[in-house]
Structure formats: structure tokens, C-alpha cells
Amino acid sequence: MTNPIRYHLAEDTIDEKDIKELISWLETSPRLTMGSMTKKFEAEWSKWLGRTYSVSNNSGSSANLLMYYALLESGRLRNKKVIVPSVGWVTTIAPAIQFGFEPIMCEADKETFALDTDYLEMLLKKHDPSVVVLVQVLGVPAKMDEILSLKERYGFILLEDACAAIGAKYRERNVGSFGDISSFSFYFGHQMSTIEGGMVSTDDKELNDLLLMLRSHGWSKDLDRETHSKLVAKYDIDDFHSPFVFYYPGFNLRTTDLNAKIGIGQIKKLNWILERREENHKRYLRNLEGRLQFQIPPEDSRVCSIHCGALAKDVDERKSIVESLGRHGVETRIFSAGNLGLHPFWISRYGIGSFPMADRIHHCGFFLPNHPSLKLEDVDYICNAVIEGLKKG
After folding, report:
1. What angle do CA 81, 145, 290 make, to 5 degrees?
2. Where are the alpha helices (DSSP H) in the chain?
3. Largest CB tally within 10 Å, which of 164, 208, 297, 371?
4. Within 10 A of 130 (CB to CB), how many other CB atoms are there?
5. How do the residues of the chain divide into helix, strand and coil, expressed in percent and rounded to 5?
6. Residues 105, 75 contacting (CB under 8 angstroms)
7. Residue from 178, 183, 177 nearest 198 by CA
8. Mean pLDDT score of the chain, rounded to an integer?
């Protein structure tokens, strides 16, 4: 029997104080569509992350869409082959299909659940892809030394999906600062929230200019004046037409200044949010050590999870744990999307993508709540519910 939910998987990081500050700002009748506040948010995010450029947009999924399409329009691809992860989210892979790439799926690492580097190198030797997409799974950093070593040897472009990994660190460096382009999500329940929203970050000005244009219809209005003027001169555009000339077949993936205002407030308290999530995650691991399998982060890294992911020993044990969590009013669900190679969108195009580790995550994985409002005694209560399920199983 499932009781009313006492502990949700996620809680809003936008609190009463944030709402009051937003109301005060709204009472000044500010411009709400994308404008100066968005630029300020992008600048503050880049400073916090440690990257040169950031482009705000309406979701983490849109951020992934922009990453792929910017590469496609960049002229840098030697082919359209892309290595994609088996463990992640559908919109990590969907743009590859939508834009006519040739996605090749990679097994999950047994420790981090990100790309298995041995399997990845086998695919690199066999297919020579232009692009590799890495998901920093659930705020546990991937083995970046190995992945960057492969990048140097095989010359691929790295897209880093850090949508659910804000605040995680690998050797004192923020996750999301490793890829040629990286994506982030500010969805409800993630490490920080702008209600809906995403960000794309890079250190490459040419890619940043493409991202700015593709986000907004393909026009150049958001570019710096020098770059805008060069495009106007290149195509011999007259002054009257220049604000509304479309250089690429872009999208409308813009955010709003309202979302940006919330985001700026979230950055101010982000370190506190991250500390609370890290503390809760460590408590889960301490209480349940030896009872379940958890991701193992690389040495000298910081975990910052949106949920604490765990693996039972088999399907039956997971079922028993899930039933116990339900009886105790604890919300849970499948680990991310499990193995994306076992979903219809993939099977219908490429056949079943079955891998030992990714399949285990699919059939045995589940989530435990983690958010800043969760206290350590709440974590203890949830762990006791898990242990009860283990005993019954």
C-alpha cells in the first residue's frame, strides 16, 4: 500500500524570500522579455562556472539542441557520426536523430555510470566519430582525465551534458567546464531553478556567436557590434534591413528576464544549496553502505546530486524497496531513464541497444530524494524504509 507522499523526490529551490524579491522587482514594471537582465545572468553564470561565454535559453533540452546545431553549422565536422551515452536523458540523444547525425551508443561505466572509457575507445577506433556526447550522470563526475586523454588522441569534439550536475567538481574544476560546449538545466528540482530554463557555455567565440544567432531565429541582433557589422558588410545588407536579416535557419529558444532575475538570485545562494545536497548524499552512502550499489566518483571530486541514485541486486529486490518506500510516503522512480537503448525511440531506428552495465541500471536502479530542504534525520528515515524493504525482499 502506498501512503500519501511525505518526502518528494524534488522540492523547489525558489523559496518565499525569492518570491518576495521577485514581487518587489515586478512592481517596478520592468521589461520581462529577454533583455539586460538575461545578459547579466549569463555573465554571472559564466563567472561562477569559470567559462568565457554563456547563452541562456528556455530549457536544458533546448541547450542540447543548440549544442548539436551549432556544431552542424560550424563546418568543423569531418563526418556526422556521434557517440552517445546509454545512460542519460532522451534529449541528450534526440537532436542527433533530428539533425541527421549517425548516433552510436556507448556502454556505461561501472563506477560513475557515465561513458565507459574502454568501450568508448573501441568505438573511436572503429567509427572515427566527429563528436562525443558525455553526460555527467546525476552530479557524479565522469573520469575526465581518461576522457580528455581520448579526446586528445582521437580528435573528437566533446559535448558535455551537465544538466543534472551543477556544482559537481572534478579536481577542483566545475563540471560543465570541460566540453567544447556544455549544457545545463534550471528545471524545477535541479540543483538550482529558474522555473524553466537552460544554459549553454563555451570558451569559443565563434561557437558562442553561432549559439546566440541560433537561439533567436538566426539573426545577428544579439551579437557584439563588431561581429554584427562584419556580417552586414559580408552580405552587403543595408542599414534598414540589418536588424531583421536571418543568417541561419534558427529557432526561438529564448528565455525571459523574469527567469533571469530568478536565476541571479539562485546563484547567490547556490553554494549553500550545493553543500546541503552534498551532505545529504554522503549521509545516504554512510547509512546504506554495503546494502546497495552507488556511483563511485573519481578521486578528488565533489558529488552534487539532484537525487541519490542506487542499484538493487535484482528486479525483485528493487520492487521490495520501492514498495517499502511507498508505504513510508517516500517518492521514488526509475534511475534517470535507465538504458536509453531499451526505449522505443532507439529500438525502432537502430535495434535494441543492450549493454551489461546500462541494462543493470535500467532494471535495478531507482532514486532517493535529495534536496536542500531535506534534513539529515529525514535521510535517516528514508534509509530505514530502504532497509525495511531489503529485509522483506
Report:
1. 105
2. 16-26, 36-49, 60-74, 90-98, 117-127, 144-154, 205-215, 225-234, 257-268, 270-288, 315-327, 344-350, 356-364, 376-392
3. 164
4. 19
5. 45, 15, 40
6. no
7. 183
8. 97
Question: Cell numbers of 158, please?
Answer: 566533446
The pLDDT, as a whole number, for residue 225 is 95
- Predicted confidence (pLDDT) per residue in 48-99, tens digit: 999 999 999 999 999 999 999 999 999 999 999 999 999 999 999 999 999 9
Question: Are the beta carbons of 130 and 156 closer than 8 angstroms?
Answer: yes
Average pLDDT of the residues in 290-308: 96
Instruction: Give every CB contact of residue 84 below 8 A, 6+ residues apart in sequence.
Output: 92, 93, 96, 103, 104, 105, 106, 133, 340
Instruction: Please name the fold of domain 270-392.
Output: Aspartate Aminotransferase, domain 1 (3.90.1150)
In angstroms, the first-to-last Cα distance of the chain is: 16
pLDDT band at 277 (very low <50, low <70, confident <90, very high): very high
CB-CB contact of 132 with 158 (8 Å):
yes
Reading the block at residue 373, the C-alpha cell is 530542504
**Domain spanning 16-268 has what CATH number?**
3.40.640.10
Question: What's the pLDDT score for residue 1?
Answer: 60
What does the pLDDT look like over 181-205, one tens digit per residue? 999 999 998 999 999 999 999 999 9
d(CA 202, CA 224): 16
| Rounded Cα–Cα distance for residues 160 and 88 (Å) | 12
Dihedral of CA atoms 212, 162, 345, 11 in degrees, nearest 10, equals -110
**Structural domain boundaries of the chain?**
16-268, 270-392
Cell of 93: 540523444
